[in-house]
Design brief:
The chain is of the alpha+beta class. The chain is built from 15 helices and 23 strands.
């Protein structure tokens, strides 16, 4: 009996690889690029015509999805979502690079598993060569096989011995270096088309050309991967998928923005006809979550009940009518945006209205972003670009993207689209009703990690203020004031409204229906019922004997009366402000006997005027006598 057992054990060890190799299920390869827009020849991008032969060859041999969208416009949230098979807002992985700090770790809900873990448990060897970037704690041993591979182009022999396998090749995509690209292969900036939501200047032509070059270099690498597959004995039983995690990295309305540019990605695949029928171009709306579901279907594994994707090649496949995506904190930039894409339209809902659309972010030092800000400061941006980057953040956005793919013309107020707008609101409401963990804020430790610790701490959003000290009592933390070039020790009220991450600087409207945040650098709103107030609470200011006056710099298109109160008590008589196209400075004296005393805990600016009067405020500050 013992000898028989030993013989069985020996045969299992010797033949084990062959037994797995006889598994009829396909091998599955994901080539997962970073930061890449669908600017390849196969997608009809003129600047890269005939310049991306390897990606194009995948599409030619199988399927090209013309309208594929990711769940989030940033790598970690997108990749977390695709590994789990549900949108990141369902299971708490919506905040970029979350779960990195030991005191702010996040775990998947009980019973929920990643795609490679499910495949591994189902008999697949699973591998990942490159970044993971998951926003939750995960166990490597349960997720990926322990077998150590070589590189992305020379691991095929090992893979052949461990079939069926699922492997992800992570490529640099838009981040790849183009320095070594031969001059004759470089994209001519004069021949590129800059998307309509960017300045049409030489700098941006160079940015677009560089992204085309990055795709060409990445295509070379993909060609090496495909050549390795072709030279192996695996091609006849292997499915190959190429896709990206979001749009171009050097275009600030692509990466990190829930727009067509940020969410629309390349998605092509090929494989044996048994699993991948040669369909050419498919124009149906697709979520990359569908790839996760299709991958399990290829492996013959039933989809878990939490999956939101669908098998793209199922016999009973029904095309999507819409695709939903979400954006939350990105690095140290806090946000919350939800969006839904239908056949012709994109509807977007913004939740953080006290900050501009283009907030302070990790690319602030890049020349292309500096150029945008310089043009805005110089008054040289077009009205459209000024509005979509530095204008008041609307509660809703609605675009006919079939005609306006750059999302420049917001149709929310256009009565011709009222019916469609209402339909899209309902679609998004129904999607969110299934669960949105982005409704609340991150924990104080998580906020501290991302706003104060990460890269020295650059967070300027108001959510970070709970962890910070405000030494002078002006309602703005010491850290925030330093980041914005203010004096955190001056004990003086001063609000300039020029920080795109917290444009209102804590001021709130009372009796004002409008969002009071206007273009960057200003508060701007209309009087709703002939009167309203601006209120600032959370102060602990101690008046100084050198305080001379409270200055309010504003512009109004109709006469307005202003009264200022401190701790609910008037600081002086009502002042009349005439309408004027130019900014005026209103001076409220702070002499003895004006109720400017004790500890100032709140301020209120009462406003009266004709209904609909427009006010724009540039500055509110206390002026002191020079010592």
């Amino acid at each position: 009996m013992k000898s028989s057992f030993k013989l069985f054990a020996f045969l299992f060890l010797v033949l084990g690889g062959r037994l797995f190799a006889s598994d009829s299920r396909p091998n599955i390869v994901w080539i997962f690029a970073e930061d890449t827009s669908p600017w390849m020849g196969t997608y009809g991008h003129a600047a890269n015509k005939l310049a991306t032969p390897h990606i194009d060859s995948i599409a030619k041999a199988g399927v090209r999805f013309e309208r594929a969208y990711v769940p989030a416009p940033v790598c970690s949230a997108c990749r977390s979502s695709m590994m789990v098979g549900a949108n990141q807002i369902r299971f708490g992985s919506h905040e970029h690079r979350s779960s990195r700090a030991k005191d702010a770790q996040l775990f998947l809900p009980d019973g929920m598993k990643t795609l490679p873990q499910i495949l591994k448990e189902g008999g697949y060897s699973t591998f990942n060569l490159g970044k993971t970037d998951y926003n939750f704690v995960w166990e490597s041993d349960k997720t990926y096989s322990k077998i150590k591979l070589k590189g992305q182009t020379d691991s095929w022999k090992l893979l052949e011995q461990n079939q069926p396998f699922f492997i992800q090749f992570q490529t640099k995509g838009g981040k790849i270096s183009t320095k070594k690209l031969a001059d004759e292969r470089r994209t001519d900036p004069a021949k590129v088309t800059v998307p309509a939501d960017y300045p049409q200047n030489e700098l941006y032509r160079n940015v677009v050309a560089q992204h085309c070059d990055a795709i060409r270099v990445d295509d070379d690498h993909i060609g090496n991967i495909l050549e390795g597959l072709k030279s192996s004995r695996l091609e006849e039983n292997t499915i190959v998928v190429y896709l990206s995690d979001h749009g171009a990295n050097h275009l600030v309305r692509h990466k990190q923005m829930p727009t067509e540019g940020g969410l629309h990605v390349p998605f092509v695949l090929m494989g044996p006809k048994k699993w991948v029928p040669k369909q050419g171009a498919r124009n149906d709306l697709v979520s990359t979550l569908d790839l996760t579901a299709t991958t399990l279907s290829w492996a013959g594994i039933q989809l878990p009940d939490w999956y939101e994707g669908r098998d793209l090649f199922a016999k009973d496949f029904k095309p999507r009518q819409w695709v939903a995506s979400a954006k939350d904190r990105l690095d140290h930039t806090i946000d919350r945006v939800r969006t839904i894409r239908t056949d012709k339209f994109r509807y977007t809902r913004n939740y953080k209205l006290d900050r501009t659309l283009l907030q302070p972010q990790y690319r602030d030092g890049q020349d292309y972003l500096k150029n945008l800000k310089d043009l805005y400061a110089a008054g040289k941006l077009s009205e459209d670009l000024k509005r979509i980057y530095f204008g008041e953040r609307p509660k809703e956005e609605f675009y006919e993207v079939s005609k306006d793919p750059a999302q420049v013309k917001n149709l929310v107020s256009d009565p011709k689209f009222t019916k469609e707008l209402k339909r899209h609101r309902k679609l998004l409401d129904a999607w969110l009703a299934k669960g949105d963990r982005g409704e609340g804020e991150e924990s104080p430790p998580a906020l501290r990690h991302n706003g104060d610790d990460w890269q020295g701490g650059r967070g300027v959003n108001p959510e970070y203020e709970i962890n910070r000290e405000d030494s002078d009592g002006d309602g703005l933390s010491d850290k925030w004031e330093k980041l914005n070039g203010r004096d955190p020790q001056d004990g003086r009220l001063s609000y300039e409204f020029d920080c795109g991450g917290w444009q209102t600087e804590g001021w709130q409207g009372r009796g004002i229906r409008d969002n009071i945040a206007g273009f960057q650098g200003f508060l701007q709103f209309r009087l709703a019922d002939k009167s309203g107030s601006l209120v600032r609470k959370g102060l602990k200011i101690k008046p100084d004997e050198s305080d001379q006056a409270l200055l309010i710099k504003l512009r109004v298109d109709g006469p307005v009366s202003i009264e200022v109160l401190a701790n609910g008590k008037s600081l002086g008589p009502v002042q009349r402000v005439p309408d004027d196209k130019q900014f005026q400075v209103i001076r409220i004296p702070l002499a003895d006997g004006t109720n400017w005393e004790g500890v100032i805990k709140s301020m209120e600016i009462k406003l009266e005027g004709l209904e609909g009067t427009d006010l724009e405020i540039d500055l509110i500050e206390v002026k002191r006598a020079q010592v």
